[in-house]
Amino acid sequence: MTNASIPWAPLRASVIQRRLRAHGTSAPVTVTDRTGSTQDDALAGLRAGAPHGAVYAAERQTQGRGRQGRRWLTTPGSLLFSVIVCINVPSPGSTGRLTIAAAVGVARAVQRYTGASASIKWPNDLVFGQAKAGGLLVETHGHAAVVGVGLNAYGSAGIAGGQATTTLAAYATQPFERNNLLAACVVQMLDCLSAEGAAWDAVHAEWVRRSILLGREVELTGSVATRGRVEGFETDGALRLRDAAGGLRRISSGDVSLRLVTDDEPPRP
User: Fold this and answer.
1) What backbone phi and psi angles, to 5 degrees, belong to 108?
2) Are the C-beta atoms of 81 and 181 separated by less than 8 Å?
3) Which of 28, 75, 98, 187 could form a disulfide with 138 if both were Cys (CB 3.0 to 4.6 A apart)?
4) Please, are residues 114 and 173 in contact by the beta-carbon 8 Å criterion?
């Protein structure tokens, strides 16, 4: 593939930072062509004293990771970045609020700059139609956190880990440029992360509204193995599940994996 045939411009720290400054965010931006993981880059920056809002982006990752130690697969044209967060970080290990804010922030930016409306599959997948186009990873470190975003902006659809994948470009209704979109995602994420009171209620309500699980039958495996219907979500991101016995259970993401059950699928033994 020649450069002329690639439909995306390379990521540039100076361009992203200029866009961020236009929105009142002056934290540093680091862009690399190739890295192990932007999460690890951001964690190293946090330990070195990088401030709230610092951004670490890369064109390619060789050791990207997702929830539960899964490998985070990336393709050319992806949007890969991590952001240091030092405000409204809950107790170590509690990531629900951060995940909600990050998911809504990215979804808002995507819709504003591409016209594509992203749905959210609990707890951290970004979905178009019924296919995954991105994901979030939140890792807390004391009273700070690193929020990672992986978005299949261009590239091609396929199957990853048994799950259908798609691209943002396939659903965009207007042209978009990755540097601008990355900056918009960071601005919207930081705005959602700083929300309090009624503003936070609005963020949470949007997160629920974008869910593809509400009212659907799901099956959980991992530390909790059960099947039931999703009845709602708590303010901390926990899922409310009505199980087969009629009981209402509160499920935190933790070490749980979830899949949608089709209407004609019989119960598993």
Assistant:
1) -65, -45
2) no
3) 98
4) yes
Q: Give the burial class of 100: count Cβ atoms within 10 A of its Cβ; 0-12 exposed, 13-18 middle, 19 or more buried.
A: buried
- Check if the beta carbon of residue 118 is closer than 8 Å to that of residue 127: yes
CA distances from 18 to 30, 57, 79, 83 (A): 13, 15, 18, 17
**95 token code pair:** 């990531």
What distance in Å separates the CA atoms of residue 99 and residue 91, rounded to the nearest whole number?
14
pTM of the model: 0.89
Helix (H) or strand (E) holding 91: none
Between 96-114 and 178-193, two packed helices, what is the crossing angle to 10 degrees?
Answer: 140
pLDDT tens digits, one per residue of 64-79 = 565 445 555 667 889 9
Residue 76: cis peptide before it, omega within 30 degrees of 0:
no
How is residue 228 written in tokens?
């039931």
Strand partners, 161: none
Instruction: Give yes or no for a contact between 123 and 253, defined as CB atoms under 8 angstroms apart.
Output: yes
Enumerate residues 6+ apart whose C-beta is below 8 A from 94.
Answer: 140, 236
pLDDT tens-digit profile of 152-187?
A: 999 766 555 556 789 999 999 999 999 999 999 999
Quick one: which of 210, 27, 35 has its CA closest to 111? 210
Are the C-beta atoms of 122 and 239 separated by less than 8 Å? yes
How far apart CA 104 and CA 234 sit, in angstroms, is 15
Do 186 and 55 meet the contact criterion of CB atoms below 8 Å apart? yes
